[in-house]
Structure formats: structure tokens, C-alpha cells
Amino acid sequence: MRACESAFAWKTAVTLRPSIIVLPSHLHEREPERFSMLAREAGSRLVVLESEQLPLDQLARMFSSALYTPAPVRAHASSTD
Questions:
Q1: Which of 10, 13, 51, 59 has the most neighbouring CB atoms within 10 Å?
Q2: Residues 6 or more apart from 60 whose CB is under 8 A from it?
Q3: For the residues 50-71, what does the mean pLDDT come to?
Q4: What are phi and psi of 14, to 5 degrees?
Q5: Model confidence at 81, in pLDDT bands (50, 70, 90)?
Q6: Partners of 49 in the beta sheet?
Q7: What is d(CA 37, CA 33) in angstroms, rounded to the nearest whole number?
Q8: Are 23 and 35 in contact (CB under 8 A)?
């Protein structure tokens, strides 16, 4: 586990490639698309916390769900020549 300043989040995430990126909701709300893109580029799952005072069992369920729920399948653009 590693914490970092938001200014270094992109470089840290793509360098370390964590399984999960955890963000407080107030930070995620500023740029949700950018954080989703960061998670995709780092190969990570994004977990957004509504409260930083969640019980440990609830955090464990959130992390397990993020790790073991299949990622949505994205459609690939096909070229028609």
C-alpha cells in the first residue's frame, strides 16, 4: 500500500501498477473521468470511498469486489477498408 499526492498519482500508478487505486469521494468528484482513465492505464481497479472511517470488514468487501468482479468488456473499433 502506498499513499501519494494527487500531483504524482499518474506517474506513481503507471509505474507501480497497483491492483486497486483507492480515492476519497471528494477527490474523485473533481475529475471522475480522469481517475477512471488513470485506473485503466495502470491496469488497476478504482475504489471510491464515501467515508475514510469505514469499518474494516466493509473495506475488505469493497476491495474483494474490486479484485474479483470481472472488468466490463470494451468493444473494439473495427476498421472497414
A1: 13
A2: none
A3: 85
A4: -75, -20
A5: very low
A6: 24
A7: 6
A8: yes
Distance CA 28, CA 22 (A): 10
Flag whether pLDDT at 7 surpasses 80: no
Question: pLDDT, tens digit, for every residue of 11-59?
Answer: 888 888 888 888 899 989 999 999 999 998 888 999 999 887 888 889 8
- Distances in Å between the Cα of 36 and the Cα atoms of 3, 30, 64 are 18, 12, 19
Query: Per residue in 44-53, is it b (16+ CB within 10 Å) or e — as a string?
Result: bbbbbbeeee
User: φ, ψ for residue 79 (rounded to 5)?
Assistant: -95, 135
